[in-house]
Design brief:
mainly alpha, DNA polymerase, domain 1, globular
Length: 293
């Protein structure tokens, strides 16, 4: 079992170039499935489709959400796809197993006014305020993921050209920046960052107050702090600004393909969720405003 899981982990990291979070999630699902098969006395290379179906049903009976069951089936299917490619098995026992149906929730986005209010919260009166303003402006300007934000290096930013270079999952994309973000980033890079970093060898664009690369946890706390400071009732996460970026672009006439490119979505179906969001908003407006609705 451990050998097969090691093969799978290497497959995810090197061939699929999956993120650390994806690798961890998929391995956890496969570990749990492996333990269940071991309890039945079934070797992983001898698993049949009925074994996978029984396992899926057992997750449902244990009260697991449809989303959890679906993700678990995707992990198992991916695991056996790897084993097939490496010659350990002849068929994928999870291929014919239908995942639990999941009602995909529409993402929560901020209104234009809420975005303005949120971005106004960092006060440019000290180093932290300038840094935080630059980070939030960049996040909303580009719609990048928080993992991509904290991984940025100084060289990824081209302020004279007004663009950001973002490399993620082996793919590179170039995203424009609006003037306010360019100004905030320029002030941070020229006057603030040099005072925060201890070493000239530090390449990170955004650093904490100790001069080290910003962490996910540190940025999460920052988001929550400014949400509370702004008095916004919606639960704001780093992904909320990403969703708001996409929804606002679409609402103002941007096409889905361009938004897909800027977000770094491999599949257009991931971007189409924002069309549903806009359509739902139109329906809500219609119901509230039409006299016969």
């Amino acid at each position: 079992m451990s050998r097969l899981l090691t093969v799978y982990e290497e497959f995810l990291k090197t061939e699929k170039r999956a993120s650390a979070n994806t690798v961890s999630s998929y391995l956890r699902d496969v570990h749990q499935f492996s333990a269940a098969m071991d309890g039945k006395g079934v070797e992983l290379v001898q698993v049949l489709d009925r074994d996978v179906e029984e396992y899926a049903n057992s997750l449902i009976k244990r009260g697991k959400s449809p989303a959890t069951v679906t993700r678990s089936m995707a992990s198992i299917k991916s695991f056996y796809a790897c084993l097939m490619e490496k010659g350990y098995v002849d068929q994928n026992p999870a291929k014919g197993v239908s995942p639990a149906k999941v009602e995909r929730k529409l993402p929560q986005v901020l209104t234009g006014r809420e975005v303005e209010l949120f971005l106004e919260q960092p006060e440019c009166t000290d180093l932290k305020g300038y840094r935080d303003r630059a980070m939030l402006e960049l996040l909303y300007a580009t719609g990048i993921r928080v993992s991509e934000l904290i991984a940025l290096d100084v060289d990824d930013l081209n302020l004279p050209g007004g663009v950001l270079r973002c490399v993620s999952k082996g793919r590179e994309r170039v995203i424009p920046l609006y003037p306010v973000a360019i100004r905030a980033l320029g002030e941070y890079i020229q006057s603030v960052r040099p005072q925060l970093v201890d070493s000239m060898e530090e390449t990170a664009l955004f650093v904490n107050m100790n001069g080290e690369r910003m962490s996910r946890q540190g940025f999460w706390k920052l988001i929550k702090y400014y949400q509370e400071k702004a008095g916004i009732q919606k639960d704001i996460t780093p992904h909320t600004l990403r969703h708001s970026f996409a929804a606002h672009l679409l609402e103002n006439g941007a096409d889905l393909r361009s938004i897909q490119e800027m977000l770094g979505h491999a599949d257009i179906s991931s971007t189409q969720i924002y069309s549903k969001l806009i359509n739902q908003k139109i329906k809500d407006v219609y119901k509230k405003a039409h006299p016969r609705a």
